[in-house]
């Protein structure tokens, strides 16, 4: 555990006096915290860690040092009583006015987090935190708050607010996870204290809700595949994107958008998924072949397979904006296609991914091959299955999707 000592540093200030610091030592490492006090070398008793009688108002100042020492020791004893360890950074944060989280507001920290994500090219995550921030501060009416203000009670009220705006459990959980991730990052960076951490009491796990599985049956998938596009030319791209995703193991929209012709060989598509960096080698089934031929014949002179990215030198933020705009139209058009095909289920870009996994399972494919977690519970585990098992096994299983 950490130890405390008030000490005088050996380097003089410009006025010739030597500064007084609080030194906290832990694991043979020390942190010095300025007390904004100083005196001549002869006025300080290093053994007793106090001012000598020659220092003006030495009694009052030594009493103040005693209070400082007591406050510092209380921080350490409080952590010891809870059976928790404390870092030097956490100690400094708590010692300085007893609340680190007053240094920066949640508003500012959240925006810095978004800016950092954009600078690192993680524009998708940046957009997620931007949307979460907008929603949370709409609830707060744009008030400035600090991390200690995010209490279990506040989260309960935010949950009520979300439900009043017709958010379901899964949507509420997503927004709460954004706040939790931000709070954890703030603690890690020394901008919030564990002392006020609200998620020990407020449990996001309670927001399980129903699984809300929205997979389309194979029959409905084939309604979309067989739709006469000559009667609906404005929906060609949307139909193609959905069918392509379905027959490429539920490739998500972001990866489809960035798919290049160099990723396509005679009978395989090879790409690295942007979200998890998992590498996939996928057999080109006939519906995918037809879609690839359709875009190849357009001779657009671009490296991208689909006409989504319009400029090859687009910045990450431009790409994210383009994805958001195109994906919005994609999902809007899917509603139209569902209506034309008389499909009552709600269809979004994500449905293709879940339909792929569910229909493989219903076709008799082992859950060890395609787990139910794919797309809903834990995508990385599903991708681990796909990556570890032989591609030939997967390819043979995918042939089942061609059967009506």
Describe it.
Helices cover 47% and strands 10% of the residues. The chain has helices spanning 58-81, 88-95, 106-119, 123-139, 152-164, 169-188, 218-225, 236-246, 253-258, 286-296, 316-340, 349-362, 379-388, 391-398, and strands at 3-8, 18-26, 29-39, 44-45, 50-51, 268-272, 279-283. It has a 3-stranded antiparallel beta sheet, with helices on one face. Strand 6 (268-272) and strand 7 form a beta hairpin. Helix 8 (236-246) crosses helix 11 and helix 8 runs parallel beside helix 12 (349-362). The longest helix is centred in the last third of the chain and has 25 residues, at 316-340. It is elongated. The relative contact order is 0.08.
Taken from the alpha-carbon principal axes, the silhouette is elongated
Query: Which value, in Å, is the CA radius of gyration?
Result: 30 Å
Count every beta strand, where a strand is a DSSP E run of 2 or more residues.
7
Helix content: 40-55%
Total helical elements? 14
Biggest beta-sheet profile: 3 strands, antiparallel
- Widest sheet: strand ordering: 1-2-3
Poorly predicted runs of 5 or more residues: 98-102, 372-390
Report strand %: 5-15%
Structural class: mainly alpha
Mean pLDDT: 85
Could you give the distance between the termini? 67 Å
Q: Which series of helices and strands comes N to C?
A: EEEEEHHHHHHHHHEEHHHHH
Topology:
Elements: E1 3-8, E2 18-26, E3 29-39, E4 44-45, E5 50-51, H1 58-81, H2 88-95, H3 106-119, H4 123-139, H5 152-164, H6 169-188, H7 218-225, H8 236-246, H9 253-258, E6 268-272, E7 279-283, H10 286-296, H11 316-340, H12 349-362, H13 379-388, H14 391-398
Antiparallel strand pairs: 1-2, 2-3, 4-5, 6-7
């Amino acid at each position: 555990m950490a130890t405390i000592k008030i000490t005088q540093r050996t380097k003089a200030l410009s006025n010739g006096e030597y500064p007084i610091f609080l030194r906290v030592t832990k694991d043979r490492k020390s942190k010095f915290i300025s007390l904004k006090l100083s005196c001549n070398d002869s006025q300080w008793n290093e053994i007793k860690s106090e001012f000598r009688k020659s220092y003006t108002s030495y009694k009052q100042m030594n009493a103040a040092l005693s209070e400082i020492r007591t406050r510092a020791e209380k921080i350490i004893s409080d952590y010891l009583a809870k059976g928790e360890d404390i870092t030097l950074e956490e100690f400094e944060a708590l010692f300085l006015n007893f609340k680190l989280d007053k240094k920066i507001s949640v508003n500012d920290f959240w925006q810095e987090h978004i800016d950092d994500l954009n600078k690192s090219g993680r524009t998708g995550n940046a957009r997620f935190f931007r949307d979460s921030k907008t929603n949370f501060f709409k609830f707060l009416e744009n008030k400035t708050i600090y991390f200690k203000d995010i209490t279990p009670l506040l989260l309960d009220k935010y949950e009520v607010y979300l439900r009043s705006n017709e958010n379901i459990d899964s949507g509420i959980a997503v927004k709460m996870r954004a706040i939790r991730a931000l709070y954890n990052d703030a603690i890690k960076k020394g901008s919030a204290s564990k002392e006020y951490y609200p998620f020990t009491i407020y449990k996001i796990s309670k927001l399980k809700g129903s699984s809300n599985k929205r997979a389309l049956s194979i029959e409905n998938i084939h309604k979309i595949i067989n739709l006469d596009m000559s009667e609906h030319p404005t929906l060609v791209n949307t139909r193609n994107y959905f069918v392509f995703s379905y027959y490429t193991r539920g490739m998500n929209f972001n990866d489809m958008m960035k798919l290049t012709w160099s990723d396509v060989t005679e009978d395989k598509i090879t790409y690295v998924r942007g979200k998890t960096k998992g590498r996939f080698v996928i057999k080109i089934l006939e519906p995918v072949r037809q879609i690839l031929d359709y875009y190849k014949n357009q001779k657009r002179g671009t490296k991208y397979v689909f006409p989504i990215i319009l400029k090859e030198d687009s910045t990450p933020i431009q790409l994210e904006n383009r994805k958001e705009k195109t994906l919005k139209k994609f999902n809007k058009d899917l509603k139209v296609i569902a209506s034309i095909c008389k499909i009552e289920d709600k269809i979004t870009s994500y449905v293709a991914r879940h339909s792929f996994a569910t229909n493989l399972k219903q076709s008799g494919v082992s859950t060890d091959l395609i787990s139910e977690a794919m797309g809903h519970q834990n995508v990385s585990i599903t991708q681990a299955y796909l990556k570890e098992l032989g591609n030939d096994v997967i390819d043979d299983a995918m042939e089942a999707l061609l059967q009506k």
